[in-house]
Amino acid sequence: MADELAVRFQGHRLRSRRVEFSILEDEAEAMYDRGWSDGLPVVAPTEARVLRMLGGTARDPQDVVAVVPPDLVPCTVEKAAINAVLAGCRPEYLPVVLAAVEAACTDEFNAHGVLATTMPVGPVVVVNGPVRRRIGMNSGVNVLGQGNRANSTIGRALQLVIRNVGGGRPGGVDRAAHGNPGKVGVCFPEDEEGSPWEPFHVWRGFDAGASTVTLFAGEGPRGIVDQLSRDPESLARSFAACLRTVQHPKLPMIFDALLVVGPEHGRVFREAGWSRTRLLERLDALLQLPGDELVRGAGGIAEGLPPSVAGATLPKFRPGGLLVVHAGGGAGLFSTVFAGWASGPTGSQPVTREVGT
Fold first, then answer.
1. Cys staple from 56: which of 75, 94, 314, 356, with CB 3.0 to 4.6 Å?
2. What is the per-residue pLDDT for 288?
3. CB neighbourhood size of 354 (10 A)
4. What are phi and psi of 152, to 5 degrees?
5. Looking at residues 209-225, what average pLDDT do you find?
6. If you ran DSSP here, which 8-state letter would residue 46 be given?
7. What is the rounded CA–CA span in Å between residue 264 and residue 252?
8. How far is it, in rounded angstroms, from Cα 240 to Cα 257?
9. Helix count (H) and strand count (E) of the chain?
10. Residue 145, beta-bridge partner list
11. Measured in Å, how far apart are the chain's first and last C-alpha atoms?
């Protein structure tokens, strides 16, 4: 009854075009045929569901959240809510979706470039602050996997906004040669409570009490296994050896990376008193690469840098190009890395936005 009354008395708030299905149409098939889906079933965005979704934010439905590439179409709160319904979100997730849309549509993140590249990258959304617990996100066991509704649907809602509002579809502007399963949507929270360090968003300059999303243009996650290191120097060396291979071991300063340190690895750094900054400084020192190993043809590999770098030393990552967060299950000496796309002003830079109401 509440939904019926909402449609009757608040339906005028919705400005989007209505699409009527015939009684003989299957809803799921009809939405897929109209191109609204990412390939998986979606939830029909009825007036009642969209109004219910809009109840998750205090913003006016007609406020413009961002101009969405590649078609540069203004996305209102209402349009974002429609795609959040399609994705399977609950209303309390909507402020996080709106913040993610805002972050994705900045020049710094460069969603158009992330779409158009032939590399297999997409938005990776990291959530920090009180909103993680308020909406029931999972930062522990299987943090990057299935099973948690908020984790699974927030990143999907962002991707559906880019598809349905901005026109970014595979085979169109989306030219990924391989893509990765995470392009359906990747979203996870940091485990702040178990972290050996200050929360990630605090390290990026936000107040501890703020809720934020950070977007990183990354490929699918891959694991780092080190079950024997019990001192931070050994573990940092393991991390460095794996991080050198990001995209290619002979290509430095081109790609960023997001390192997700698991709790058992995090404990090694906590017990030794290593801060996040100290870890990053040590990794930077360990990832100073000799130019002789990077030139084209070195190691019998044609890929590499011009001969002019011979004799020089180059860092694997640009300053600030390696990000470190803490998440994962409490059992297992594992961490994970997301390799990034082209870094800096000519590619994509990580962007953090505060979650509003």
1. 94
2. 98
3. 17
4. -75, -30
5. 97
6. -
7. 29
8. 12
9. 12, 12
10. none
11. 26
> Quick one: tokens of 159?
């991707």
Beta bridge partners of 288: 315
Distances (CA, A) of 45 to 19, 89, 122, 154: 10, 11, 25, 16
- What is the pLDDT confidence band of residue 237, given thresholds at 50, 70 and 90? very high
Q: Which helix (H) or strand (E) holds 278?
A: helix 276-286
Q: Average of pLDDT values for 269-283? A: 98
> Which backbone phi and psi does 136 adopt, to 5 degrees?
75, 40
Give this prediction's pTM.
Answer: 0.96
Please state, in angstroms and as integers, the Cα–Cα distance from residue 300 to each residue in 90, 138, 294, 295, 296, following that order: 53, 45, 11, 10, 9
| Cα–Cα distance for residue pair 82/53, rounded to 1 Å | 8
Give the number of other CB atoms < 10 A from CB of residue 190. Answer: 25
Alpha helices in 12-93 (DSSP H): 27-33, 47-54, 77-87
CB atoms within 10 A of CB 185: 24
Summarised one tens digit per residue, pLDDT across range 311-331 is: 999 999 999 999 999 999 999
Output the six-digit token pair for 31. Answer: 């939405």
CA distances from 297 to 241, 247, 301 (A): 21, 17, 5
- Contacts of residue 291, defined as CB under 8 A and 6 or more positions apart, other chains included, come to 305, 309, 310, 311, 312, 313, 314
d(CA 6, CA 110): 38
- Inter-helix orientation angle 232-243/276-286, to 10°: 60
Q: Which two tokens stand for residue 240?
A: 């460095």
Q: Give strand ranges (E) for 252-356.
A: 255-261, 288-290, 313-315, 322-326, 334-342, 351-354
Q: How many CB atoms lie within 10 A of CB 101?
A: 29
- Domain-by-domain residue ranges, the chain? 10-354
Please name the amino acid found at residue 200: F
Comparing CA positions, the residue from 53, 86, 56 lying closest to residue 163 is 86
- Taking Cα atoms as reference points, which of 259, 250, 257 lies closest to residue 279? 259
3-class secondary structure, 333 = coil
- Enter the DSSP assignment of 66: E
